[in-house]
Write a structure and sequence with these properties.
It is built from 13 helices and eight strands. By secondary structure, the chain is an alpha/beta fold. The protein has two domains: 152 residues, Rossmann fold (3-Layer(aba) Sandwich), CATH 3.40.50; 208 residues, Dehydroquinate synthase-like - alpha domain (Dehydroquinate synthase-like, alpha domain, Up-down Bundle), CATH 1.20.1090.10. The radius of gyration is 20 Å and the shape is globular. It binds nicotinamide-adenine-dinucleotide (NAD) and zinc ion (ZN).
């Protein structure tokens, strides 16, 4: 029996134009976003509602995979502005940047009265309800997950109209990130019945709605379902943790700047195959994958076949979404891959997500998974 806890303090609003009254009584609003959101006027989603007499400042210097230098700049701005409301608007990058800025600013000044609202514009990271923030050290080519309850937002706003403009490739990458979060949380060694419930629902929603949202981007029902799936998966892994899929993706993305969800998608079939023991002796994790197969009506009487059906389905999904199915096709040459391999595997082994992987892993296992995922050759 697994001993654990489940903590979800964030109020979640969902639906078109669902933003609750987060601004009343607030006089200093600090908005963290990226240049695209700012330059295309999307920040008006918040600024149009700011009361007369209140002031705001927009920090829009966040780029995909936020870097520690951007965070330091944001901390300086936040300390100088002294907000009583922090709003993160954007994908996982601005949300994680806002979390890190808040975290480090609170070491310098008392922000205990600050409210923190997150408005995601991708359906992917679940960062609006997670106690994770992923920060990149560009010089070292490493991504660090910061994990702390202090990073949990007070309010999450899941408005599908903000996601309708997402290009198909980003819908695909971020959608597969959701699937990876839910699958990793579902097999994690720290899962509970509570995280399972959220992961199960998330997996069903992704299975049913991701391709639909990809093909009909402006359908707000499909977008809402994927937004909900992302948030549910975020709540699941915030409590249960992730696994080596994320450890390997962090190291790969940190080194080669492959979008986070794409890196996860490339690795997912190989990681599931390793964790299930498909090429050798089946592990207890194979039963968990078989349970997911049952949820999706892919189950057979054999655990091995059921786990394999799930792995094949993930591969088919990735193809249907037009994503590369191996690291080579993501544009990484053999020479640059081999030069980076030992360090990436070391980094992945040390990543905090490795500790909740359901199966024990050694350095050589991680190297083997990377090698198979580079060539796309099945074991
Ligand atoms: N904190 C967590 O729990 C967690 C979990 C998974 C990933 N991450 C991190 O989150 C980051 C990735 O976040 P992401 O995948 O959401 O992407 P992102 O925030 O990096 O955005 C990707 C691109 O999409 C654009 N974009 C965002 N919303 C848009 C919209 N509505 N319409 C058009 N374009 C839009 C952005 O401007 C950007 O160019 C990575 O750094 C990853 O490591 C964090
Ligand atoms: Zn992720």
């Amino acid at each position: 029996m697994i001993v654990g806890s489940f903590y979800l303090p964030t109020r979640i609003s969902m639906g078109k134009d669902c933003m609750p009254d987060i601004l009343s009584g607030k006089s200093r609003v600090f908005i963290v976003t990226d240049r695209f959101m700012h330059e295309t006027g999307r920040v008006s989603y918040i600024t149009d509602k700011i009361n007369e007499g209140a002031s705001y400042e927009v920090f829009s210097e966040v780029t995909p995979d936020p870097d520690i230098t951007q965070i330091s700049k944001g901390v300086e701005k936040m300390l100088a502005f002294e907000p009583d409301l922090l709003v993160a608007l954007g994908g996982g990058s601005p949300i994680d940047a806002a979390k890190a800025i808040m975290y480090f600013a609170a070491r310098e000044k008392d922000f205990s009265a600050l409210s923190f609202v997150v408005i995601p514009t991708t359906s992917g990271t679940g960062s609006e309800v997670s106690r994770f923030a992923v920060i990149t050290d560009s010089e070292k080519g490493i991504k660090y997950p910061l994990v702390d309850d202090k990073l949990l937002p007070d309010t999450a706003v899941l408005d599908p109209s903000l996601v309708a403009s997402l290009p198909p490739a980003v819908t695909a990458d971020t959608g597969i990130d959701v699937l990876t979060h839910a699958v990793e949380a579902f097999v994690s060694n720290s899962r509970t019945d509570f995280s399972d419930a959220m992961a199960e629902k998330s997996i069903k929603l992704v299975y049913r709605y991701l391709l639909k949202a990809y093909k009909e981007p402006e359908n707000l029902d499909y977008r809402q379902r994927m937004h909900n799936a992302s948030c549910l998966a975020g709540a699941a892994f915030s409590n249960a943790g992730l696994g080596i899929n994320h450890s390997l993706a962090h190291a790969l993305g940190g080194k080669f700047h492959i979008p986070h969800g794409r890196a996860n998608g490339i690795l997912l079939p190989y990681v599931m195959s390793f964790n299930a023991g498909c090429t050798d002796k089946l592990t207890p994790t194979a039963n968990r994958y078989a349970k997911i197969s049952r949820l999706l009506d892919l189950e057979t009487t054999s655990v091995r076949q059921s786990a394999l059906n799930l792995i094949r389905t993930a591969r088919r999904f990735i193809e249907a979404l037009g994503m590369p199915s191996n690291i080579k096709d993501a544009g990484i040459s053999q020479a640059e891959f081999e030069a980076a391999l030992p360090e990436m595997a070391e980094t992945a082994l040390k990543d905090s997500c490795t500790s909740t992987n359901p199966e024990y892993v050694r350095l050589e296992d991680l190297i083997g998974i990377y090698q198979a995922a580079w060539s796309g050759k099945w074991w």
